[in-house]
């Protein structure tokens, strides 16, 4: 068993060890459910000249099981020029109770600290957060040949989340004109990761150099503290009733 303080590299090596034990044909081994994994999705609006600058307006983080641990609307640092509602789902109404960017950034980074973070084209999310996550602790589902192979796509193509969800999960996402749901997208990304988790971690374990063990996280930064918050999107609160 793995403790909560187990380093990501130890988790990956453990995956690899489990796979190496399955050469006897006794059937698939049980998958791990490590608490060190989260998936993230961000929605951006346009600021700056002609709204060409992308700034964070909503961020969702889900755990390994797809449960929401963080979801807030975020007030950009610059005035919003283009809400990009058709894609972002963000409207002026959402900004009335939005949390300031710096406050949101601090909360989100506490959650991501020492985690393996899953995302789709995740560099866009990190750019919106003005943050760089360690490469060996990042899993980008838009750049995984394993998923493309399963979906029947060319290996080097950067497939969209919508296409991968349709072909591999048999679900439709990002439909209609009300914009994307960052909750749905983050959950879908984690589902895709879990489809290829063991094989992907095995490959990474053999290619990544070892890191020092992570320090034990301070319980005061646990993501559970964000479950009851005045800044939660009202539509999400309504859905939970």
TrEMBL record:
<dbReference type="InterPro" id="IPR012337">
    <property type="entry name" value="RNaseH-like_sf"/>
</dbReference>
<dbReference type="Pfam" id="PF00929">
    <property type="entry name" value="RNase_T"/>
</dbReference>
<dbReference type="InterPro" id="IPR013520">
    <property type="entry name" value="Ribonucl_H"/>
</dbReference>
<dbReference type="GO" id="GO:0005730">
    <property type="term" value="C:nucleolus"/>
</dbReference>
<dbReference type="GO" id="GO:0003676">
    <property type="term" value="F:nucleic acid binding"/>
</dbReference>
<keyword id="KW-0378">Hydrolase</keyword>
<keyword id="KW-0540">Nuclease</keyword>
<dbReference type="InterPro" id="IPR047021">
    <property type="entry name" value="REXO1/3/4-like"/>
</dbReference>
<feature type="domain" description="Exonuclease">
    <location>
        <begin position="36"/>
        <end position="202"/>
    </location>
</feature>
<keyword id="KW-0539">Nucleus</keyword>
<dbReference type="InterPro" id="IPR036397">
    <property type="entry name" value="RNaseH_sf"/>
</dbReference>
<protein>
    <submittedName>
        <fullName>Apoptosis-enhancing nuclease</fullName>
    </submittedName>
</protein>
<dbReference type="InterPro" id="IPR037433">
    <property type="entry name" value="ISG20_DEDDh"/>
</dbReference>
<dbReference type="GO" id="GO:0000175">
    <property type="term" value="F:3'-5'-RNA exonuclease activity"/>
</dbReference>
<keyword id="KW-0269">Exonuclease</keyword>
<feature type="region of interest" description="Disordered">
    <location>
        <begin position="204"/>
        <end position="241"/>
    </location>
</feature>
């Amino acid at each position: 068993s793995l403790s909560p303080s187990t380093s990501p590299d130890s988790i990956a090596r453990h995956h690899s060890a489990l796979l190496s034990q399955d050469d006897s044909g006794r059937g698939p081994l049980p998958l791990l459910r490590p608490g060190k994994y989260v998936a993230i999705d961000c929605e951006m609006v346009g600021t700056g000249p002609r709204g060409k600058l992308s700034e964070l307006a909503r961020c969702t983080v889900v755990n390994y099981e797809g449960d929401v641990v963080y979801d807030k609307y975020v007030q950009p640092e610059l005035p919003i020029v283009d809400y990009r509602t058709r894609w972002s789902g963000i409207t002026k109404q959402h900004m009335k109770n939005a949390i300031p960017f710096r406050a949101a950034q601090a909360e989100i980074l506490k959650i991501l600290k020492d985690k393996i973070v899953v995302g789709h084209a995740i560099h866009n999310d990190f750019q919106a957060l003005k943050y760089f996550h360690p490469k060996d602790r990042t899993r980008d589902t838009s750049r995984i040949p394993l998923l493309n192979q399963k979906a029947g796509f060319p290996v080097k193509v950067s497939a969209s989340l919508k296409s991968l969800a349709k072909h591999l999960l048999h679900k439709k996402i990002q439909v209609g004109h009300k914009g994307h749901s960052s909750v749905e997208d983050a959950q879908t990304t984690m589902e895709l990761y879990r489809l290829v988790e063991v094989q992907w971690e095995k490959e990474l374990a053999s290619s990544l150099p070892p890191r020092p063990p992570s320090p034990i996280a301070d319980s005061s930064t646990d993501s559970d503290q964000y479950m009851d918050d005045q800044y939660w999107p009202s539509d999400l609160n309504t859905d939970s009733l």
